[in-house]
Design brief:
It is found in: Cytoplasm. The chain is of the alpha+beta class. Helices cover about 30% and strands about 20% of the residues. An eight-stranded mixed beta sheet has the order 4-3-5-6-7-8-9-10, with helices on both faces. The structure holds 1,6-di-O-phosphono-beta-D-fructofuranose (FBP) and magnesium ion (2 copies). The site of one magnesium ion (MG) has 6 residues, from strand 5.
Length: about 350
């Protein structure tokens, strides 16, 4: 049996609803950009110096050649779409596209830039909101009409939600079509896998440190089970693994200069991932509140991000809420504490 195409899926969802049809057109345009980017990535170094640094964002992050190429591909693909406003990690300010457009879109054109020249997976993240005026991209994540990401891995995958579950598609290259491989992704509530950049451990706050110490203590610690670490350094790849088999991802705020709110951007990284997770029975928090409830103050605002299996995300939130009851500095293989039994 040949599985449903992305186009068929979106047609079925949109029916004759005009706004939904606009969302469908926009998702298909983004999928086109993803297809073009996948071709470039498949050529690797044969496509030129894709990992070369070309500039810097206002806050100092580097912009590589492929970041800029991906940004351009997205912009071109959306030129004919019903999108009034486009925000991107690679542009300081949003740009106006189609004055008659009904939608606002924000993108991380290339997520996982540090992996460009290593032949590891990278991706494109997007969120689609109703166009409500110049501040349309500052609506909270609860207002998203659709969100998703493309993952350029051994196969090209698309994770998508339009608010009716989370669907997974894979690019059928000979036909140039995305085909559905999972109609209802389900993130298991419990997990034995966590993803965090542990090189920052000395900068973490008490709640994050205690949570990870308890995972590390494994079967001899308060969790009474062994855990496994996975960290790709491309959030999209970690998110896809979590959609497939569960797990938890953490990029918390930490004490490094400029990292008080972590590294990930609320509007075009955290919100789309949070929407996908919730629609697959997972969860996403900044430690204190649900990601989707946060009202953005600016397009490039950062946010501490914890997402994945609901039971673990709730546990991290509990550690944050009750941080004062946790030991200031616990031994790595610590004793059972008040919250940690
Ligand atoms: O290098 P670090 O600090 O571990 O950060 C890795 C994280 O940063 C990101 O690469 C941020 O995305 P960009 O590549 O779009 O800047 C995430 O995908 C990834 O999880
Ligand atoms: Mg990113
Ligand atoms: Mg990026």
């Amino acid at each position: 049996m040949i599985s449903r195409t992305l186009q068929d899926h979106l047609d079925g969802w949109a029916g004759s609803d005009a706004l939904r049809r606009d969302v469908a057109t926009t998702v298909l345009a983004l999928a086109d950009a993803g297809r073009a980017l996948a071709e470039l990535l498949a050529a690797g170094p044969l496509a030129g110096g894709l990992a070369e640094v070309r500039g810097f964002h206002a806050d100092g992050d580097s912009q590589k050649e492929l970041d800029l190429v991906a940004d351009e591909l997205v912009r071109e693909a959306l030129a004919a779409a019903p999108v009034a406003l486009l925000g991107s990690e690679e542009m300081d300010e949003p740009v106006e596209l189609n004055p008659a457009g009904t939608l606002a879109v924000a993108v991380d054109p290339l997520d996982g830039s540090s992996n460009i020249d290593t032949d590891l997976s990278v991706g494109t993240i997007f969120t689609i909101l109703p166009y409500t005026g110049a501040d349309a991209l500052l609506q909270p994540g609860t207002q998203q009409l659709a969100a998703g990401f493309l993952l350029y891995g051994p196969h090209v995958a698309l994770a998508l939600t339009t608010g009716a579950g989370t669907q997974l598609f894979v690019l059928d290259r000979p036909f140039g079509q995305f085909r559905m491989v999972e109609a209802e992704a389900q993130v298991p509530a419990e997990t034995g896998e966590y993803a965090i950049n542990a090189s920052n451990a000395r900068h973490w706050d008490r709640a994050v440190r205690c949570y990870i110490e308890d995972c590390l203590a494994g079967g001899e610690g308060p969790r009474d089970r062994d855990f496994n670490t996975r960290w790709v350094a491309s959030m999209v790849a970690d998110a896809y693994r979590i959609l497939m088999r569960g797990g938890i991802y953490l990029y918390p705020g930490d004490a490094r200069r400029g990292y008080g709110q972590g590294r990930l951007r609320l509007v075009y990284e955290a919100n789309p991932i949070a929407f996908l997770m919730e629609q697959a029975q997972g969860a996403a928090t900044d430690g204190l509140q649900r990601i989707l409830d946060i009202v953005p103050e600016s397009l490039h605002q950062r946010v501490p991000l914890v997402f994945g299996s609901r039971g673990e995300v709730e546990r991290v939130a509990r550690y944050h809420r009750d941080a004062s009851a946790l030991p200031e500095r616990s031994p790595l293989f610590g004793r059972r504490g008040l919250l940690r039994a």
